[in-house]
Amino acid sequence: MDFRIRVALRLAAAVLFFSVLSFKVSAQDVWLWPVKGYEAGHGLAGWPQQEMGGELNFGYIFIAAPEGTEVVCPADGTVSHFSVGFHSTLTSSSSYHFDSDNFNAIFDELVAKGEYESLPVPAEYLCGDITIRTDDGKSIFISGLSGNVPMKTGMRLNKGDIIGEVKYAYHKIKEPHIMLNVYGREGTLDDPMSPFGLKSTFEEPDEAAAAPEWLTREQAEEDLAILMEAYRECFPSLDEIVTPERMRAFEADAAEAFREGISYEGFYDIVRSSVSSRLVHDSHVKLYTPNPKVDNPEQIYVPNVSHGISGGCVFVKVVSGQYREHLGKRIVSIDGIPSEEIVRISRERVIMFDGSNESRVERQLLMNHWFLYNDASRPRTAVIVLEDGTVIRDEWDKWPSGKKYYPQWTENSAYMKNLMNTRMKFGFAGLDDSTVLFRISTFSLNDTEMDELRDSLSHYMDRPNMIIDVRNNPGGDVRVVKKLASVFLNDTSAWLDSYRMVKDTAFRSMKYSLNYPETAIFSGYEKLDGNPGFYKADDEVSGEIVPDSILNYKGRVYVLTDETSCSAASLFPSILVKAGRAVTVGRETGSGYHYITAYDFALIRLPNSLITVRIPLVKCVFDEVVSERFPAGRGLMPDYEVPLTYEEIYTSETDPVLEKALELVRERQ
């Protein structure tokens, strides 16, 4: 029997079943059932752990109701997402974003653009989506909506407010319905049933399983083979950063390391090295499982003499009180390892940088002394030989040690002041009558926050100089980037043929994914003759950006960038620089200029070690033109470089990057 027919037959039984199994929760805590006029559980057409046409449903509930029935907000909260799209599978969807403020208006725009003609699902399954961030930090996602209720992100909603009408959400259910799931405060899938007072079928992922102390050779071989195959199958930028010979050499070295079996800590080190500069280094590849020797050991030990690396030299970076006289001195060796080898070992352990990026590498080498030791969980005595002949036997202390360490970061330190500024998403400061400083620490801004930003920005439009600081900015929404860029562009930007690419593989390694089905499906991607992979235009980035007709800044623009300007925070200055509208001051951005790998990610969990690695699935190409200004494999390079120094991070009370920008303002460059 067809799944969609079976759904209709189950409706009545489901209502009775979940009503009988419902449990009591306090009236003030229970969420309101989203279909107006229905009791909790009424209309339930699908639930977690149910197989739906060959797919296992992990976290959705499906609620059937007549088309046009009003849908209400289940709990007090704020709109964090609002769009129109469709679901190809339970784990794959596509969305369209327009400036219209209601679902029906967006549908009309899509009709006008002819989008309905190329949908991979029946047209009625193009539907409205909304995500509501509740006051306790959870996120409720509801899809399958229509209606003309005005919406914008950041808008406040109260429990019971009308948010739309029932349409169709998922193409394997033929009745009108909505679909709903919930994410917890940490962004992980959460129970969608118990908040409504229903007995739940939701099953938590088995994240609490204890890691083994030891892996046999066979277990280690299996986990490594799965990880290497996942990189080859899933990671679309692999060929740009790793040769096949290098992959094989890495696998051979690893196999030798666990020939007689290996401890969990030892195997973790192998997996970590696979996401480092030794192999698949990328700003969006991430090892989700904490390092047992560094991130969360039961007891932490810290050195009295901490080293840093700058300009290829190893030196004394931070010390406890009794060693203050040695601050800044060059180090010849540590535990018999010469300084040149310390630099090599440390470089091999650098992670999360794109292509040939140098700025992120340099910062990690300066700040992360544990790259050499790779262990903060055990006591040790390090023997440090200085260039002046001094030999220090540094007995590490349990943390907290009660000691003072120097240099000390204070509220006046430039580094700390810049970090504290990130507590606000954006801010403005008039530096003098002619110059304003505009700091933005994220591009994850909702519509309400963008309105507030524009209102604040409008007060400074007559200043002839604007310094925009996108340091300590991890990125965010590309649409926000384009909207903000339109304020500073005085002419329509050149057309960009930006695109996305995914691998052309069977995705067999998705068997071990925590968040994707065994066969990954990417809607809208097409094969291009003579090119590996599948492609589609990146509509969020490509095309022209038209100057804002209401708010448009005409003055000189200086953008502060460095290794902490990542993802969208690299894209924003790139757009302005490419349009000739800004100069950049500081250092290379943390993410690649020409492309990044982002958007969709597979969480691959190795079955024996239980280590989880996040692998990006989509290569997002911003621009393919390589030039002296935009060299291959690098982030956006600065027009005026301010090299990273020890003083900038640890001792200076003035910000050298900002000071350089102010110097350029004075010189009218």
TrEMBL record:
InterPro entries, A to Z: ClpP/crotonase-like_dom_sf (IPR029045), Dup_hybrid_motif (IPR011055), Tail-specific_protease (IPR005151)
Domain of life per record: Bacteria
Any one biological process term the GO annotation gives: proteolysis
Pfam families: Peptidase_S41
An annotated Gene Ontology molecular function: serine-type peptidase activity
Ranges where the Tail specific protease domain occurs: 438-599
Name this polypeptide is given: Tail specific protease domain-containing protein
Origin species: Candidatus Merdivivens pullistercoris
